[in-house]
Amino acid sequence: LKTKNMILFKSMVRNLLISDATGNFIRFLTPKIKVNKLKFTVTSKHIRGKIVSLLFFNKYEKEEVQMIHHHMRRDLPVIDLGSSLGVVATNAACISNQTILCVEANPSLIDIIAMNFLNNGVTEDRYTILNAAICDLEKAGEPIFFSSHGSNELGRICDEQTKGAIRVETALLS
Hints:
This protein is of the alpha/beta class. The protein contains six helices and ten strands; from the N terminus they run H-H-E-E-H-H-E-H-E-H-E-E-E-E-E-E. The longest helix has 16 residues, at 2-17. The protein is globular. It starts with a helix and ends with a strand. 26% of the residues are buried.
C-alpha cells in the first residue's frame, strides 16, 4: 500500500509540475528558459503552458536533443520537419557547421523559431525557415489547410471549413 501511495503521489506532483498552470506561471516569471546552455523565448501565447513547463524542466524533446548531441555529424545539412519552437533545430545548429532548414506549417511559430536561433547566436545565413507543409507528388503545389488549435503541439491538417483553418502552401521534401 505504501508503494502505491508513493506512485500516486509522484504522479500527482508530476501532473502539477508539467501543467498549463505551472507553465504559465513560469512564463510570467521569465521570458526565456535556459536549457543545456541554450535560451528559448516562451512569451508567445502560441506556446502552451504545458510545453513551457516541459522546456523548463528539460523534458521537452529531450530524447531528440540527446540523439543530436550523441550522434549527429557536423558535416551534414539538417532538415527539421515540424520545427515547432525550433528546439531541435537550434541544438542541431549549435553542433553542425552546415545549413539548417526548418519546415513548419504553423505560421504563428515562424517568428519564434527565428527568435530562438537569434537567442543562441545562429545567424540568418545559417538557416532557412519554410512556412509550409510537406506533401507527396500528387499534392505538390496545392495548398492545404492547417489548424493550430491554439498551441504549438496540437497543430493538424484539416479541411477548409474547420474553425480557425489557415491556408498553408505545400512543398516537396526534395
